[in-house]
Structure formats: structure tokens, C-alpha cells
Amino acid sequence: MTTLTALRGTGRPSLRRGKVLPTLVLVLGAIYCLIPVAWVFVAVSKAPGELFSSFTFAPGTGLLQNVADLFSFGGGAYGMWALNSLLYAGLGGVLSTLVSASCGYALAKYDFAGGRIFFGALLAGLLIPGITLAVPQYLLLSDLQLAGTRWSVLLPSIISPFGIYLCKVFADGAVAQEALEAARIDGASEWRIFRSIVLPLMVPGMVTVFLLQFVGIWNNFLLPYIMLADQSTFPLTVGLNSLLNQGSGSPALYSLAIAGAAVAIVPLIALVLFLQRFWRLDLISGGVKG
Amino acid sequence: MTPQSAGGQTITHRTTARADARTATHPTGHRGSRGPSSLRPRLAPYLFSAPAMVLYVAFTVIPLGYAFGSSFFAQRLTGGGILGTRRTVFVWFENYAEVLTNASLVAGLGRLAIYGIIAVPLTLGLALVFALLLDADGTRFKRFGRTAIFIPYAVPGVVAALMWGFMYLPATSPFSHVTRALGLGTIGFLERDGLYGSIANITIWGGVGFNMLVIYTALRSIPHEMIEAARIDGAGEVQVALRIKVPLVGPAMVLTSIFALLGALQLYGEPAMLKPLTNSISTTWAPLMTIYRDAFVLDNLSSAAAASMVLALGTAAASLAVLAVVRRTSRRGMA
Questions:
Q1: Which of A1, B66, B82, B163 is most buried, judging by how many CB atoms fall within 10 Å of its CB?
Q2: Rounded distance, CA A260 to CA B233, Å?
């Protein structure tokens, strides 16, 4: 009631229309983005029979049964996939962030032979499609007896040209040359300077890189799909694909796949929403002032 | 001097060393002192970048070189009869010729082009529109809109394909449910021609939020005085958006469009995930699916290597073309 009066109170109709249209478009966009998420959470509550018979946005009665089925499928394979995803994305993300931060700092704050060439090569690396590398990476790692192991997914995930680029941009702006000089005068070693002065200054940039890498590795499909053959090493993405491929058209399997999708997105949506405030997207949009 | 000043003494010594370092370029400055070398670290930058360099060489440079090299070789049967021996021989550009005349791969590239023409402009266009709406004065529910549109970023591409796949599947689709109730029949989301839009929709859905946030962040760094000045000059909200905001977020748009283009050319997971749900997706629907099949199902690695080199070159060419167009238009804008 009060909002209605307030809206009416804003006076000229042209002004009001100017506010309604943008709001409407934004809300339509939001609904478009939420529909599949809403649908999958409704569908997960349906018993296999209800999935095809009842109206698709009406909740069903099989939620607990579906989730129980999901986690008992293949001797607990789904839980294993989730743990693998956590391992690849978590450990890979942390290592990738550290490697990117130290390299980005070196590229930003030292003038050394080969630094520029390496930076140029990194930028060129951004343009290479994943599959071009994935196939020879697979051959290389099978020569080293590593293909099919968890290492074959972890190791290639650590190097991120984009992460290094972001860390360099961030170090350029956040780390003052004077602070480094002063620490050197005080006799601090280069490692100590990096650990106690540079790293704390780079934390906001590193959080951004970690999130990008975590989500990127978690969502990656092609690399683990090519590298891994053993079900017990699969991350969620490859596991769900194998689940769907095991028998097309079987309603019981559809229910499992839907439950798998619903459970898989819950932790990641929570993580992204929680960490959203720590993002420094101005790194990407070019708003960082040096 | 008191013992406590020992530390201070070191500092004094180091300061002198730095002064020496500064005068070292001077002819009178002395050489070979320990000071300058400890202040101008030579080894440190290499140690800091070593992990990245080693991993980059191991997982990018060497695989790329390997792919490039093996694209010029092929397995051939030599000797007569059925019992000929398989040998790897140098075949010049034969693999490339085969790739470029391979009907299924060329058809896949065509499908990829149609998909890309739908997906890339729509992703960026929607992202720009939503970012401008978030930045505009009159819009309501901004927090809700921003969060909701960003949520798909957290959903893996193959999981998004799975979710949308069931929303396309005639038996479970809520959209077809409604159209059937209205007597309009089932929507052919997974039919041959509907697929382009259906697959594009999945990647647009997943990509809009992230690009929106990047552009929105760039919009917020525009100085407020600039927009105020335009308003005082009588520009409306739409004019401010089109004449001031859009040109100023150019760099963010360039970066996002290159990433969107790169992502579009590497389409794989979405069609692969929809494949079990429909007969309209062949094993060669997208070029990457053909490359995967060549490499891992048919065991024809040299053909896969040549095809992936073609795709890599195409990707690089497309990105450079975007950059060139942008540079030309921005130069024209300056003049």
C-alpha cells in the first residue's frame, strides 16, 4: 500500500515509465537466469514416475529417495566425484594462485632478461584452444606414466596465463617500488620481501585469481574427460556425463542425472555468492590505476 | 656507539652501498662491491617466475610443438599384402589437405559458425544491456538482478547443458508442456535446426552474468562529473548510456568479446552432453568432437593434430581480427 502511494507520488508519468522499463528488463533477465535452477530443484523432488507425468514446475514426493539413490549409485561414486572436484579445484586453485602471484610479481617489479619475452608468450598462450593442447598433453603425460592419474588433471590446471596476467596488473598497481627499496636497504632478502611485504599487498588480487581458477577448474570438462579413464578419479562434470551416457532413455537414470546436477550446483552457487564481495573485477575491466 | 645501534650500523652501511650503486654508472664509482649486486637482485626474478615458466613450457610450449610436429607425419602401411608394416612417415601438408577437404569437419566448422554468430553477439549485447541497467539511476531491484544473473556463472557448462537438456526434452520440457496445452504442439528444441539456438542459449545463459559484471565494474569507474556534465547539457538517460558510457567501456568490451569468441570456438561440452538426449547430434557435430573422435576413437593422431592446428590458427586469426577492427574504430573515434 505504501509502495503504491510512493510510486504514484513520483509525479510525472514519463519519469515513472523511465523507471519501470529498465526494472522490467532487469527482472526478466533475472527470471531467465533463475528458471533452469528453479526447474532442477523442483525436478529433483520428483519420483521417477512423476518426472514425466506431472506438470514440470509442480513439486513431487521423491526428494529424499532421489538424493539417497544418487549417493548410493555405483557404490558411492557420486560422493567420490564431488571429492575429486574439490581436490582438483581446491588444490589446483591454490597452487595456481601462488604460481601466478610470484610470477606476476616478478614480471611487474623486476626488469630481467627474458621477462618481456615470457610475458608475450603468456599472452599468446591465451589464444590457444584447449583441445590443441589437451591431445598432446595427454600423449606427453602417458609417456610419463601419468595419464589417467589425478596428477594429469592437477598439473596442467596450475598454469594459468590469465591468472599471471591479472597478478602482474595487480602487482603493478598495489606494490610500491619504494617499499621494496626500503626493505632491501634494511637487509631483507628477496624471499622475505615477497613473503612479508608483497604477498599481503596482493591478497585482493589473489582472491580474484583463486576464484576464477577454482570455478574454471571445477567447471572444466574437456581436460579430465580426455585424461581420465577410471571412474574413481572423475570430477563431477565427467562423472555426470558418464552417468547420462550409461543408458539413454531410462527414467530412473534421468532422475539420477537431475539429482546429480541439483546437488552439484548447490556448493558452488553458495561459494560464489559468498565470495562475490571480495572480487576485484576491475582487474579484468581495465579499471586498475597504476 | 652503543650495542643497540648495531642494527642501525648495518643500515648505514647498506645506505652507503645504495649510494654506491647509484653512482656506479658514474665513471668514478667503484666496481665489484657486494652492495649493488645484493640491491639489484639478478637471480630473484628468475626464481619467482621459474615455477610458472617450467609449467608453461611443459604444458603449453612442448605440447604445441609436439602437435605442430606430428601434424606433418602420418602412419602408413608400407610393403605389400595384408601384412604390411605400419610406419610413421613425413607427409608434408597432406594431413592439412585432408582436414580441409574432410566433409564432416568442414560441416562442423559451418555449424560452429552459425552457433557463434548467434551466441557471441547475444552474450555480449545482453551483458552490456544488463550492465547499463545496473548502472542507470532509475532501475529497481539491482541487487537481486545482479545476483540472479550472475548465478549461472557458478554452474558448470556440462551441468547447464544437462539442466537445459531436460528442459528441451519433449517428455520433461515445461515449455513444450505449455505449448501442448495451448494446442501448439511440442517445440523442436532438439531437432536439427532448433539445435543452434538451443545450444547457443545454454552458453549465453552461462556467460551473460560474468561479462555483465566485468562491464558493470568498468562502468562504475567512469568519473561521475562526466555523466553529470552530460545531464546538465540536457542528455537523457539513454543518450548518456549510448554516447558516454558505451564508448568509455570499450576496453572491457574488447576483452570480453575476445574471451567470448575463444569460448565459442572451443564448443565441446554442451553438444557432447546433449548427445544422449537426441539423435540430431552426430559424433562430428562440433569440430572439437571430430578432433576428439579422430584422436581417441579412431587413433588417428596426426589428423587430430592437423585439425587442432587449423583450429588454433583460426582462433588466433579471429582474435587478431577483433583487435584490428577495434583499433581502427577507436582511432576513427579519436579523429
A1: B163
A2: 56
